[in-house]
Amino acid sequence: MNNITPYSSPHYFIYLLLLLLPIMIGLWFGKRFKFYDFIATVVILIITFFGGNMSQGLSLIFYILYEMLLVFVYLSYRRKKNNFWVFTSFVVLAIIPLVFVKLDPLLKNATISLFGFMGISYLTFKAVEIIMEIRDGAIKDIKPYEFLRFLLFFPTISSGPIDRFRRFQKDVVKVPTRDEYVELLHSGVNKLMQGLLYKFIIGYFFGTLLLPKVQILVMSYRDQAPLGISWALVAYMYVYSMYLFFDFAGYSLFAVSISNFMGVKTPMNFRAPFKSHNIKDFWNRWHITLSFWFRDFIYMRLMFTVIKHKWMKNRVTIANFGYITLFLIMGFWHGETWYYIVYGIFHACAMITNDAWLRFKKKHRKKIPSNKFTEAFAIFLTFNVVCFSFLIFSGILNTLWFS
């Protein structure tokens, strides 16, 4: 049996349903079968990582042991001391496996991907969050099995949403009442149906049926227009944007749905992002758990450090520096190719422009109209700015211009 990517095939959903039934029956009667939860997790991990190719599974085991060692060594240290550079060293050590994996395609070194397995980014975000919150004193104690349960929570293991340890811990320790669990079941069923619609119907239409045909049309104009820019490329921009949203949002809905069936209120990852009024609003609606993770653990901490050490004095300059740093990191996280980096820079510039507009609007509030038309125009403009950024992100320009 080959590895099965989560939520990608009917087989996975069949295995999932069979494994979930005892968990759901237990919760219905007010019980959590912790040992069975462990067994179900092991089965899903075997299906996902230990199929025909066991290298991913072995990498996962090695990675978990490595991160666990870091977390508990730092926890032991933090109980006695709180040195900034020691903390920074542990954070760097925690992200090194992810850095190796991200550098692998660039260096083309087969030995560097020792940690290469599906979902390493999201597990790393969780591990780093724990180290940071231990440093802050928000997490004062954590047991090895709690660490494993949090990192290996199988509904979200491959692509999120990225939960927070303390929020997750409250859910898995508490057993919901019958009425609370009925609400979770109702929510889970609704999200499951919505996820099926998004990923396997709408996402399939845009991604499998439509996108390849539009791409062929784009390439047909390669030598017929300056830089190959054509109306077909505009069509590709919108089709790809729809595919990207419905495919990923569908996956995220599955993850939240299965979490609900297990009595866990995993946070939502998307909230009508194409209804955003500006680019900042968009990042509060798109891949929410990731954008909030970057905001809380990179942007806000960077801002605090810059202000504390007085590296810059002007608040606007500080914020702009933070945007550029944040979105460059996000771009590099997606991959070491020019279009991911440009995608990050584009969004940093969009955030800087948006802040400048909001400051201007605040000063000239009486002169700038605010009505349904301006609101609709703001949504339309934001939608097109976002879609253009996804055109960059898609890599089609790299294919069109350089391949």
Strand content: under 5%
What is the radius of gyration?
23 Å
Number of helices: 15
Q: So what's the oligomer here?
A: single chain
Shape: globular
Number of strands: 0
Class inferred from helices and paired strands: mainly alpha
The unreliable regions are none
Note the run of SSEs as H and E: HHHHHHHHHHHHHHH
Tally the structural domains.
Answer: 3
The largest β sheet comes out as:
none
Distance between the termini: 36 Å
Helix content: over 70%
Overall mean pLDDT: 92
InterPro entries: Ac/AlaTfrase_AlgI/DltB (IPR024194), DltB (IPR024024), MB_O-acyltransferase (IPR051085), MBOAT_fam (IPR004299)
Family: Belongs to the membrane-bound acyltransferase family.
EC number: 2.3.1.-
Subcellular location: Cell membrane
